[in-house]
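Morning!

This is the sequence you dropped in the shared folder:
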Amino acid sequence: MHRVEAAYYGAPPGWIGRLAHVQWNATHVRLIDPFSGQLLREHLRQQRGRHRIQEQDRPTRTPLSTEQLLRRAEIAGTHIGALCRAMHQNLGEEAVRRILGVLNLTKKYGVAYRGQVTCARLQRAMPALSEPRLPAAHKWSAPARPRSGP
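The structure's back. Tokens below.
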């Protein structure tokens, strides 16, 4: 990955971890071989903090660490697992940080809250899934946390 103004751009698989010259303007970022001057990749500019990777550069298999993360999500709950799998299918490796955030929320707020939130997100993200649906009568709230400090 090469970073330009806080956005990340993918290099071809043989170039991962190697230095490349980078040219950019208002619309494009170009990765160039420093020895031959050959254009390696050309990307459209991306927003700060976002990633741009061409489809042919994406790994064909899911990395082991990501599979382990998705298994942790399945263990946390079936709804959590479904949400995290959907995020990974749609975003690929970019979803890893979001999955970590979901798992952190489950750890912080507990079973009842995470079930409600993930059901709501699943229904918004994938309207074709009608189950699981929480009854409207249930109102969940975050557990009361003791205040720390004076």
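Headline: The two ends are 46 Å apart (CA to CA).

More detail when I'm at my desk.
O.
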